[in-house]
Amino acid sequence: MALFHLSWLWLVITLAVLVASPYIAAREIAANPNGSSGYGARSELARELTQDWQTRFHSRWAVVAGTTEIGEPMTFYSPDHPAPFTPGEIWSSGLTSLAEAKRLGFIGICDTTDQRLPTCEAWMKANAANAEQLVINTQRFFQGHAGPSISWKIYIVPPAG
């Protein structure tokens, strides 16, 4: 009987948090609009970059180069699911390599709010010297409250040959 009561209590608490979650996010954004980098509009960025890549090259976006915090969401949110390449990574994921990224082309992304921005820019300068460079701004809204506005430095490297 105790297991039944614990299960029932867990269900009630889970449903209450599920119902409250939009209000929790809205309150957090209202209280600290620029401090919630976890609320950056990464899904919107992934959709826009996928569309940009397909418009330019008429192929699927194969590789994204950037920190784990940006590369993994691009892989998840983009319908092309590009393989992530993390510059300077000590232990490679094995999903792609720099040589493969240069052969297939890639989109490099640097988050301007990240303390590692100088490192990212230096890597892009060394490995994406002839890339098309863009700055894309994204912002999400939660029940009328604006989330953080983030500027992304984008480097589009076309496929080789």
Residue-averaged pLDDT? 88
The CA-CA distance between the termini, in Å, is 68 Å
Write down the Rg. Answer: 19 Å
Low-confidence spans: pLDDT under 50, at least 5 residues? none
- The helix-and-strand class reads alpha/beta
Q: What's the SSE pattern? A: HHEHEHEHEE
**How much of the residues is beta strand, in percent?**
15-25%
Strand order of the largest sheet: 2-1-3-5-4
**Main sheet?**
5 strands, mixed
Q: Classify the helix fraction into a percent range.
A: 40-55%
Total beta-strand segments: 5
Question: If you had to describe this structure to a student in words, what would you say it looks like?
Answer:
- With 161 residues, the chain is α/β, with parallel strands linked by helices.
- The chain contains five helices and five strands; from the N terminus they run ααβαβαβαββ.
- The chain has helices spanning 2-31, 42-57, 68-77, 98-104, 117-127; strands at 63-65, 83-85, 106-111, 132-142, 145-157.
- A five-stranded mixed beta sheet has the order 2-1-3-5-4, sandwiched between helices.
- α2 packs across α3 (68-77).
- The termini are far apart.
